[in-house]
Amino acid sequence: MTDVREVSCRPSGRRVLLFLAALSAAGAGAAVVRLAYEGPDGWLGVGLLLAPVGGWAFYKATARVRADTYGVHSWTLLRRRSVRWGDIADLRVRLKYAHTSRVQDTRGISLLLRDGRKPLLPLPRSWSYDDPDFDAKLDAFRALHRLHGTPESDHVRVVSYRTAGRGWAGSLALCVLLLGGAGLAAWFVPGAASGERAWRSATPCDAGTPAAERDECLTVLTAVIARTEATRSRSKGSWLYFVDGRPTERLAVSSDGARMFGPGDSVELTVWRGEVREVVGERHAYRLHIPASGELAVVAAVCLLAAGHPAARVLIRLRGRRLPDDEVLPSALPFGGALVGTALWLLPLAYLHPTTLLTDPVAVTWAAAGSTATSALFVWAWRATRVRTPGEIDVTGVAGVTGGGGGFAEKEMEKETEEGDDVFLAARFLEHTDYNPYGFGTHVVLGGGPLAVTPHPGPGRFAAKPVPVERLVVKEVRRVRGSDGDTVPSGWHIAELDDAGIPVRLAAAPDDLTRILRELAAERTSANTANTAHPDA
User: What is the DSSP string of 238-307?
Assistant: First the structure.
């Protein structure tokens, strides 16, 4: 598309958006008029809802983007921006996932400017991977950039939530918020523990107890239940009503507590610090639930552990800050496993010893043993999430490696499979080929026969399709990029292959990919030797 001179983008369904904006404005106006004449009612809420909807629709309908020989120009309701091609380092695809439905993935074009800023263009937009109109506009943008600018990359960089180019401010904010919740819950633990001790040591009030001290002793009052009101919810919201409103008109209880009693039941109410703590009848007794210090300590520990996951995501992004923006970062799941392992010993300890973590010998021993286990888990998680570059993999002997794969460090390989045994390795060709029709292959089998693709992990070579090793040439080995899709695990590597002029990608775990490429090179060498020995075959 070297003859492209101008690209213009308008929102799809512009008339529908304008109609929605006009309809929302009319509805909001009618609600305001009704408010003026009738006063506030339910229509006011409808008007408050329609106003932002109309504003959003009008904002979307008025957005437009144009690219020409000068640069990229965008117009929105609130801002106009123009950027020269010389100020643009690269054009990228920003992928945003709609968590309610993975079919609703949104693709947009972002600009990487020379000063490091990464503005996102309001248009074009695509809600699927297979959108010819979006792909055509992206190709036109890139063609204009090649003509009038100097792009940094020769391929389309796709930035998603898995890649290094995505920011970590959201994860950091969530981590700080959860840490604040943990600190707030921990702040209430000493007061709750003090209240528990005071409740357990409280004694009934007698006639000689001064009025100023009656809050600290137990006052027992008699009452008769007039009726009960139980809801379906197990939380508070049910009530006990008393005859003549004495000693109080009603008492909030749980739904189970309301079902314990019936009209006419005589009960005794235990009051402590101005609050009814117990309702005791002839057959049942209901005790008001007050959050205990152990429960508050568990809440604090849960918030602390939950903050560890976004903190791990921030850590992984900081470790991968030198990677290209479109390379996929390692998953934070190993740190999640370490946090789950920590929860197994920390939550029981927090519940049983909320205020004696540093004084009780059992708690100290428990915490020391658990901390040791947690340290080991986090060391394992740190190693499991390290960024492995293709240079750390030994592919010595793999013929045909050229291009940007770089040098490969030598190290001792794993013990080779015995002769004649099939070995099934999880690996996938990402393109539709004659040996991988419609991407059916999930494993590559080697060792007991020719290299083949299978839709199963074995045993047996049922439905296996041989790989034409004589046609394949390894161009480079790289890490996973955002353009490879989110079905490829982040810890895998990609081998760029040339299949008789057609680019093909093979994805597998680093060590498995090395074994497959070694086998590919060995079989290719054998095939070439056989052809040389028998040129007429």
Answer: EEEEEGGG-S-SEEEE-HHHHHH--TT-EEEEEEETTEEEEEE-SS-EEE-----HHHHHHHHHHHHHHH
Q: What is the pLDDT along the chain (537 residues), one digit of tens a residue?
A: 456 678 888 888 778 877 777 877 777 777 777 667 766 666 666 667 777 777 788 878 888 999 988 989 998 888 898 999 989 999 999 887 654 444 456 889 999 899 888 898 988 888 877 788 888 899 899 999 988 888 888 888 888 888 888 888 889 999 999 999 999 999 999 888 888 888 788 778 877 777 666 677 877 888 888 888 887 765 557 888 888 878 888 888 877 777 888 888 888 888 877 778 888 887 888 887 777 888 899 999 999 999 999 999 999 999 988 888 888 899 899 999 999 999 999 999 999 998 888 888 998 999 999 999 999 999 999 999 988 878 654 444 444 444 334 333 334 344 444 455 788 999 999 999 999 998 888 999 988 788 999 999 888 888 889 989 888 888 889 999 888 887 888 889 999 999 888 999 999 998 899 899 988 888 878 766 766 655 554
We find that the CATH architecture of domain 391-533 is Roll (2.30)
How crowded is the C-beta side of 228, counted as CA atoms within 13 Å? 18
User: Domains of the chain: which residue ranges?
Assistant: 7-159, 169-183+293-384, 209-287, 391-533
Q: Which tokens is 66 given?
A: 């144009």
Question: How far does Cα 298 stand from its chain's mean position?
Answer: 24
Q: Closest Cα to residue 108, out of 57, 149, 152, 159? A: 159
Tell me whether the omega of the peptide bond preceding residue 459 falls within 30 degrees of 0, making it cis: yes
CATH of 209-287, one of 2.40.50, 2.60.120, 2.30.30, 3.40.630: 2.40.50
Cα 368-370-371 angle, rounded to 5 deg: 65
Looking at this protein, which amino acid is placed at residue 286?
A: Y
Residue whose tokens read 């009051």: 271
